[in-house]
């Protein structure tokens, strides 16, 4: 590095100490993945005579208890291999909460300072989870300012803004490498309808829908990608071209629905979209608990409500098959 004899500048990747740090950082992130088990694919009970099977992929059982563990791992590996994160780099992220919990976990794994830039409305519970993982929370009054504020903080500290909303779709290896799509398709192989008709997901960054949709196309599966969107989100109106479908208000369903058309939302990978009323999401969240005994969040309600619409359409056409949601 600069000052250690003048041979190297800060940007010099041939510095052996920097390369040794990078190797160790990647080993630690990969070792975390190597210690982790895959997430379950549960069967949601439907009447057997329908000939339609519904599955729920449970993304809540990662080490941090956050659904964003896969994304955080991908963003760190992407930034490390790009040379954007080095020894001592302050890592900054704009987040509504869950991503920051997982990123704080990885920052601590690498002995790096972590700052989450979040709307002031973020729940105290989320803030405590981030702090528990060793992160610092920087709260802003205007939710739409989290992106610029993150960029500013990263610049000021000489740090790196991870920028999940830009990089989610490319940091994740969509062709495979044990991503969520490969996991779903391999867990389905022994089912009576192994290739799902539909996979139903919500969009926050849009990374999950991009990964699964591209994977299904690459594998030449018949599976179509359906994105469910809460009533106040911009994604549905952008996809449908119906500007009146966007209220301009923030989403009330945690983790999904945005007020900005996020760069990671790959609109042409989406085969179908369903706009789901918030009341339907919450009612379905309760129904999932009643039918499965599993406590789930509002976005699972959104997903399952959307899946039910597709089940009803298949039923009315006399079709058999399977649907997977998250
Ligand atoms: C982030 C999130 C999603 C969507 O994932 P993206 O890949 O960011 O689009 C869905 N549900 C919940 C609860 C989330 O936190």
Shape: globular
Helix content: 40-55%
Unreliable spans are 1-9
- Compressed to H and E, one letter per element, the order equals HEEHEHEHEHEHHEHEHEHHE
Q: Which strand order do you get reading across the main beta sheet? A: 1-2-10-7-8-9
Structural class: alpha/beta
> Largest sheet, described in full?
6 strands, mixed
How large, in whole angstroms, is the Cα Rg? 21 Å
Strands, total number: 10
Bound molecules: pyridoxal-5'-phosphate
Q: N- to C-terminal separation?
A: 45 Å
Strand content: 15-25%
Explained architecture:
This protein has a six-stranded mixed β-sheet. Strands 5-4-3-6 form a four-stranded parallel β-sheet, sandwiched between helices. It is an alpha/beta fold and 326 residues long. Helices cover 41% and strands 15% of the residues. The protein has eleven helices and ten strands. The protein has helices at 16-35, 69-81, 98-109, 124-132, 146-157, 164-171, 180-187, 207-218, 235-240, 278-292, 298-316, and strands at 41-44, 52-57, 91-94, 114-119, 136-140, 160-161, 198-202, 224-230, 272-276, 321-325. The site of pyridoxal-5'-phosphate has 16 residues, from helix 8.
């Amino acid at each position: 590095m600069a000052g250690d004899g003048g041979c190297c500048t800060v940007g010099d990747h041939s510095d052996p100490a920097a390369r040794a740090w990078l190797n160790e950082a990647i080993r630690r992130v990969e070792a975390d993945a190597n210690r982790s088990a895959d997430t379950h694919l549960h069967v949601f009970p439907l009447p057997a005579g329908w000939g339609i099977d519904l599955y729920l992929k449970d993304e809540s059982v990662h080490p941090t208890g956050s659904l964003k563990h896969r994304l955080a791992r991908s963003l760190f590996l992407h930034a490390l291999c790009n040379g954007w994160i080095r020894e001592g780099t302050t890592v900054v992220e704009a987040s509504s909460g869950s991503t920051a919990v997982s990123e704080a976990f990885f920052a601590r794994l690498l002995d790096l300072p972590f700052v989450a830039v979040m709307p002031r409305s973020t729940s105290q519970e989320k803030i405590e989870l981030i702090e528990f993982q060793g992160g610092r929370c920087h709260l802003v009054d205007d939710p739409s300012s989290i992106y610029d504020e993150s960029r500013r903080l990263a610049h000021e500290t000489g740090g790196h803004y991870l920028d999940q909303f830009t990089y989610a779709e490319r940091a994740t290896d969509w062709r495979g490498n044990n991503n969520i799509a490969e996991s779903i398709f391999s867990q389905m192989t022994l089912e009576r309808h192994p290739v799902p008709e539909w996979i139903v997901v919500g969009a926050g960054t849009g990374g999950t829908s991009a990964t699964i949709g591209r994977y299904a196309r690459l594998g030449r599966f018949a599976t179509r990608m359906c994105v469910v969107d809460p009533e106040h989100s911009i994604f549905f109106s952008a996809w449908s071209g119906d500007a009146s479908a966007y209220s301009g208000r923030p989403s009330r369903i945690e983790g999904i629905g945005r007020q900005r058309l996020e760069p990671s939302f790959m609109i042409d990978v989406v085969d179908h979209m369903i706009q789901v009323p918030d009341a339907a999401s919450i009612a379905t969240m309760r129904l999932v608990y009643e039918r499965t005994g599993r406590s789930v969040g509002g976005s699972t309600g959104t997903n399952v409500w959307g899946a039910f619409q597709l089940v009803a359409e298949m039923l009315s056409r006399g079709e058999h098959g399977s649907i997977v949601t998250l």
